[in-house]
Structures are given as C-alpha cells and as structure tokens.
Design goal:
Length: about 350
C-alpha cells in the first residue's frame, strides 16, 4: 500500500511517525523517572532496562520488517547505526548540561558495567561474519548467544547495583540519584507502567511505518540500504533516545540519561538476533557488506570512548564538555561524511 503512494505522502507519513516518536519519548522520560522513584530500583537501572528497551521498540520493528523483506543491509545498518547515533546524543546532552561534564556528574557503577557488556555484544557481529556460515533454527549460533548474554547482563547489573565492588569518588559536581519530591503519589506503580506501555505501543507502530517508508524511498531514490539504514531510519527511530536524554538532563536525572542511552544501545544488539531470525536466505552476517561492518566498528569505537569518559570523569573540558563528547562528535561526523561519500 505504501509503495503505491507518492513521495510527498511517504515523507508526510515519516514526518507524522517522527512526531509520534518525539511526543512519546518525552512523556516516557517523566514516567520512567517516576517509576524509578516508586520502585526504588534507581535511575540507572530503570533507564538502562525499561526506558532503554521501550525507546528501542520502533527500531526493533524497522530491523525485523526489513529482514523479513530480505533487506539484510537495511536491517543490520538500522540496528548498528542507531547505536552510533544514540551514543552521540550523550554528547548533545553534555552540551545541554552546563554545570559540569555529564559523564563526571552522572557517576554510576551500573552504567560502567552495562557499557562493558555493550562492547562485548558489539564484538559478536565481527566474530559471526568471520566464521563459517552455519545455522541453528535458521540463525547463526552467535545470534542465539546475544540474548543469553543480554539476560546475563541484566541480572549482573542488578547485582552490581546492590553489591558494588567499585564506587565513584564523590565530588562537589557529582549528582546523586535522589527520588523527586514531586513524584506523583496519587498514581500507582501499575498505572505508571500501563501509561508507559501505551507509549511503547505507539513507538512500535511508528517504527513499522518508518520501516516501510524507508524501504520504498531506498528503492525509488537509488540510495544504498546501508546509507538509508544507518543515516535515515536509524536516526529517526533513535529520536526517542535524544528526547529522553535531553529531558532527563533538564530534570537533573543524569543517571537516567546515561543509563537510558547505554541500556538502549545494549538492547539494540538484540535487533541482530531478531534480524537474523527474520532473514530467511542464510546468516545475515554473511549477507551484509563491509560498509555495514564499518558502522559496527564505529559503534564499538564510540562505546569505548564513552567508557573512557565515564572512567576518567573529567570535570570540565573544552567549552564545558569533556574530551569524550568532543571525540564522539568527531568520530560520528567523520563516519557520516565517509558513508555519504561511499554512497
């Protein structure tokens, strides 16, 4: 049906879906902060698990829909390109937070642990693409390892929060996770979770619309699926992370902001398993090209830079942002320029 529409209507649908993503993402930040306060699980854990997973739903639908259509590069690039885009959103949040370097002020051991898990998960596509093509239940065995590692990471993250072996040094610029006084007592946890789930459903529907429109535009304009996936659908479906990050920073929920990005990126690696399951022409890792793996490398490098920033905790940097934010802008900008050149 979408394929029969003109480019004007396709762009109109994508614009409408983008607005849905922005509005839902903004509302979900407030709900996630209230849920973190009500349950006592903390901003970093709720941001990394609940908010991170929910804001990734639209991207999940894009990757699955593309894989079912046999578009391996679009499915893969959407997943990995989203991780790169979302990581640079933290640098944008660092620009917004003027008191200190965001990575310094948001010190939280669970974010460090999840960052390490993300690096591990991002290494798997490289392993899968360089090993012989094989399949179990229609998927590469390493695709099955991704959700196992993800669940282990969730359990371990909860344990790390409750039994920390490392703690950040408290400075005058450190912002601790404290429950908000204005957390709405009249709303039960169940009502908060229900409202959150409704927003997540709208995100998923918007993601489906964007996936269909992106595929049609890729065919009509003649752009490569990698370019469309990494720089169009990935960025659009990552807008909830941008909205939630900036909203959380403005609310002072810094651990929620950082945890939402790292947790969302970790959840996004599950797109690879979903895409491999949906792609029926063999292993998706052997159907993609070097340009797709290029974005995998970019996401890995950017995650490592973020981890270094969280560990170093530079108080003040260039123009009040840390070295990691400057580096993230530089790496992502260079990657976009190179991908645009490659087509």
């Amino acid at each position: 049906m979408i394929a029969e529409l003109s480019n004007f209507y396709i762009l109109a649908i994508m614009t409408a879906a983008t607005l849905v993503i922005l509005v839902c993402g903004l509302r979900m930040t407030t709900l996630a902060d209230q849920i973190a306060d009500r349950t006592g699980l903390g901003e970093a854990l709720i941001g990394g698990v609940l908010l991170g997973a929910a804001t990734s739903l639209s991207g999940t639908i894009v990757s699955l829909t593309s894989a079912l259509d046999g578009r391996a590069s679009l499915a893969f690039a959407n997943s990995i390109g989203g991780i790169a885009a979302q990581t640079v959103f933290l640098a944008v949040g660092d620009l917004v937070y003027r008191r200190a370097n965001l990575e310094h002020a948001s010190a939280e051991i669970t974010n460090l642990f999840q960052g390490g898990m993300l690096i591990l998960l991002l290494a798997i596509p490289f392993l899968a693409s360089t090993t012989p093509e094989m399949a179990i239940f229609g998927m590469h065995p390493l695709s099955l390892a991704i959700p196992v590692l993800y669940v282990f990471g969730l359990i371990a993250t909860r344990w790390v929060k409750e039994n920390p072996m490392w703690e950040p040094v408290d400075t005058e610029l450190t912002r601790f996770d404290m429950p908000d006084d204005e957390s709405t007592p009249e709303k039960s946890s169940a009502r908060l979770l229900l409202a959150f789930a409704i927003m997540a459903v709208f995100l998923a529907l918007a993601g489906w619309a964007i996936a269909r429109c992106g595929a049609v535009l890729s065919d009509r304009i003649g752009l490569s699926e990698t370019l469309v996936g990494a720089l169009m659908t990935a960025v659009i479906t990552s807008l909830p992370e941008l909205v939630t990050t900036l909203s959380a920073v403005r609310r002072g929920a810094l651990q929620l902001a950082v945890g939402g990005i790292i947790g969302g990126n970790t959840f996004d690696t599950l797109f690879l398993t979903i895409s491999d399951a949906g792609y029926r022409d063999g292993s998706i890792y052997h159907a993609i090209g070097n340009s797709d793996l290029f974005w995998n490398a970019v996401a890995l490098v950017m995650t490592a830079i973020l981890m270094l920033g969280l560990l170093l905790r530079q108080k003040q940097g260039t123009a009040r942002i840390g070295f990691e934010s400057v580096a993230l802008f530089g790496v992502f900008g260079a990657a976009v320029a190179l991908q645009s050149y490659m087509g």
